[in-house]
Design a protein that fits this description.
The chain has 218 residues and is α/β, with parallel strands linked by helices. It is built from six helices and ten strands; from the N terminus they run E-H-E-H-E-H-E-H-E-E-H-E-H-E-E-E. Bound molecules: NADP nicotinamide-adenine-dinucleotide phosphate.
């Protein structure tokens, strides 16, 4: 993989490019969002992100998992992509859901490494829970109670939209997949109000026509 920006270099590793300092803002963890999209903007092909991704993109996601304390993921993604227990030692998974309609017999929940993040008025559930907000989740309050320094958000678009609306995205690790997909697939954020959060380009890597970009809060 080559680095195009900054400091062009012909042979860099995912680890050296993503293992960087991530200072937690006051009162909550640093939030790094990790997403892949095709050239015409879709983040989903045939129901999941798999068709857009490749081994190096997966390596970015998995390397980041080694650098964070908690993975935050939406219930829609857990259902679509079949999340299991984390393989990274010590990593915890926090699943954002409003309905709390999840199969708590699944290995993810039985592993003891998963927490449900939901609203104060959501139904009772048989797993560890962080509750914040009535009707709509208060993600800033929920994040501050995850006992984490760095959180990787793995989507999907609806959860990302909630984070964008609350100005909680400190970093976006965005892979541009060299495919035109058509269809009506969702964007990186779905349902957020109009916002203009300026991000700064931190790096661009290239391999096999895929661009691996990293943006941080400006
Ligand atoms: N390209 C990529 O990198 C990438 C990454 C991740 C996912 N994806 C794809 O994205 C799709 C899933 O995304 P999604 O947008 O449907 O779902 P999602 O963002 O994964 O999950 C959102 C969940 O949050 C809950 N929610 C929604 N609004 C809420 C609110 N106001 N307050 C509290 N909770 C709320 C809902 O849970 P309940 O339904 O339980 O109420 C909803 O299902 C899948 O197809 C997946 O494959 C793509």
């Amino acid at each position: 993989m080559r680095r195009l920006f900054p400091d062009p270099a012909d042979d860099v590793t995912v680890r050296e490019c993503y293992d960087v300092d991530r200072p937690a803002p006051d009162g909550r963890p640093w939030v790094a969002l990790c997403m892949v999209a095709g050239l015409d903007g879709s983040t989903v092909v045939s129901g999941t992100s798999r068709g857009l991704s490749n081994a190096t993109d997966a390596s970015v996601l998995l390397t980041m998992r080694e650098l964070v304390d908690v993975v935050l993921v939406g219930a829609g993604t857990v259902r679509a992509e079949g999340y299991g227990p984390p393989r990274t030692p010590g990593l915890r998974i926090a699943v954002v859901s409003r309905s709390a309609d999840l199969d708590f017999d699944q290995p993810l929940w039985q592993s003891g490494r998963a927490t449900l993040v939901t609203t104060l008025d959501a139904p009772d559930v048989p797993v560890p829970t962080v509750r914040a907000g009535h009707g709509v989740i208060d993600l800033a309050a929920a994040l501050s109670r995850l006992d984490a320094r760095v959180v990787q958000c793995e989507g999907g678009g609806t959860l990302n939209g909630l984070l964008a609306g609350a100005d909680l995205i400190d970093e976006l690790n965005f892979t541009l997949s060299p495919h035109i997909t058509g269809g009506h697939g969702p964007r990186v954020t779905v349902g957020a109000p109009d916002v203009m959060h300026r991000m700064r380009l931190a790096h661009v890597l290239e391999e096999d026509g895929f661009l691996y970009t990293r943006y941080v809060r400006a």
